[in-house]
Amino acid sequence: AQKITQTQPGMFVQEKEAVTLDCTYDTSDPSYGLFWYKQPSSGEMIFLIYQGSYDQQNATEGRYSLNFQKARKSANLVISASQLGDSAMYFCAMNYGGATNKLIFGTGTLLAVQP
Amino acid sequence: DAGITQSPRYKITETGRQVTLMCHQTWSHSYMFWYRQDLGHGLRLIYYSAAADITDKGEVPDGYVVSRSKTENFPLTLESATRSQTSVYFCASSRTGYLDSNQPQHFGDGTRLSIL
After folding, report:
1. Taking CA atoms, what residue in B is nearest to A55?
2. Which of A45, A55, A110 to mutate: most B Cβ within 10 Å?
3. What is residue A102's predicted lDDT score, i.e. its pLDDT?
4. pLDDT at position B97, please?
5. What pLDDT is recorded for position B40?
6. What is residue B44's predicted lDDT score, i.e. its pLDDT?
7. Do B40 and A107 count as a contact with CB atoms less than 8 A apart?
8. Which of A31, A45, A93 shows the shortest C-beta gap to B90?
């Protein structure tokens, strides 16, 4: 069965510093995708970044990068130069179920950026 | 660009009542999904739909009913609401279902449902 684990319920980071949010996953499927979503206090879910299991390079999107270590089954999100607006809940997710794009989510990490 | 809209945003009802949460998307996406978000569980998939008139169960389907007569709409019905169904409900859509398409799911703003 597929599983996503986020072991950090909450984290603090100083403004302008980098922060890494941990995510490990478990699946027996050879083909899968990993996603990170941001949920600010207003409640909406915002897609940040995607990594495919066959992608050779780590995904990057602006200040977000995904540290993908396939052998360790980890897909950590790195946010560089943290901003106050980065304070939010962050969810790691993985799709499963073949060509249906169903997602399984972790329990989330609440990030607080301090000035 | 309306995207994906959910209604109502907030709903309070009583146990045993029927309640329907609405989801509408303007992108003509094939796939639509319903999730519930609870503390300590993240988001869990309730039902999904690959196209009009095609629906299937997710991880936590008990107590819920869905339909999809039109591509753009995917209502979720609680036929007899229970307190355990108090939650935040998210609708999402994606253009395709293929793993290598880099097609993320796009989410609505959620419906906060309280069952007294």
Report:
1. B100
2. A45
3. 87
4. 72
5. 83
6. 96
7. yes
8. A45
SS (H, E, C) chain B: CCCEEEECCEEEECCCCCEEEEEEECCCCCEEEEEEEECCCEEEEEEEEEECCEEEECCCCCCEEECCCCCCECCEEECCCCHHHCEEEEEEEECCCCHHHCCCCEECCCEEEEEC
Interchain pair B42, A108: CB under 8 A: yes
Give chain A's mean pLDDT: 94
Q: Averaged in consecutive runs of 10 residues, what is the pLDDT profile of chain B (116 residues)?
A: 89 97 95 94 94 94 97 97 97 78 83 97
Of B40, B45, B98, the CB nearest to A103: B45
Determine if residue B102 is left, alpha or beta; phi over 0 gives left, psi from -120 to 50 gives alpha, anything else beta.
Answer: left
